[in-house]
UniProtKB/TrEMBL annotation:
Keywords: Methyltransferase, Transferase. GO terms for molecular function: methyltransferase activity. This is Tetrapyrrole methylase. It holds the Pfam family TP_methylase. Residues 1-197 form the Tetrapyrrole methylase domain.
Amino acid sequence: MIYIVGLGAGDESQLTLGVVAKLKSGLPLFLRTKEHPMINFLEENGIEYRAFDDIYIKHDTFEAVYEEIIEIVKEEAKKGDIIYATPGHPCVAEYAVKRLLAEAEAVVLGGQSFLDPMFAALAIDPIEGLQVMDALDFDYEAIAPKQHLIVPQVFDQITASNLKIDLMEVYDDEYEVCIVRAAGSNIAELKWVKLYELDHNFKLDNLTTIYVPPLKG
């Protein structure tokens, strides 16, 4: 059995008791990435893990990265029960999880998605209209510009540059957008920039999401 666990958007205070107990169960633990605030909790509690960050370096595309992760997790699960942990909620913007649920004996145990902390950090109400579009599968033609737009998985400068070009098809070059990093954690950062600056020298990593406010009028 593969127990798929979401590590939430911040520290262990966001996790259910059940998820914490599973992490402490002694089962082999595999992390999509160790770039997450929960790493401190795992290490302070002596919880051993294998992170897949090295796989990101090996491949030129995220598709290849996820394929290798999926195969490793499936092979490890043949030896016995394991835990596969992702940032946020496993069912939000996690391609590998979709595949594992379809192809292996797996169950999702939960986790808080990045969306709730984003709403709080930006003081926005999704009832006003909200779109969430993956940066790795972005389609500017599908944008509803009068709605809030949240774009997760802006891992690096190349992804940010491609996203900027797409957004410029809809918004003015000087339209203000927000780079949100680690929302909901004690290292959260919000930086408002002009759209044309989006791929400039800002820290972008696994915890980065871009917010585009709705057009007025």
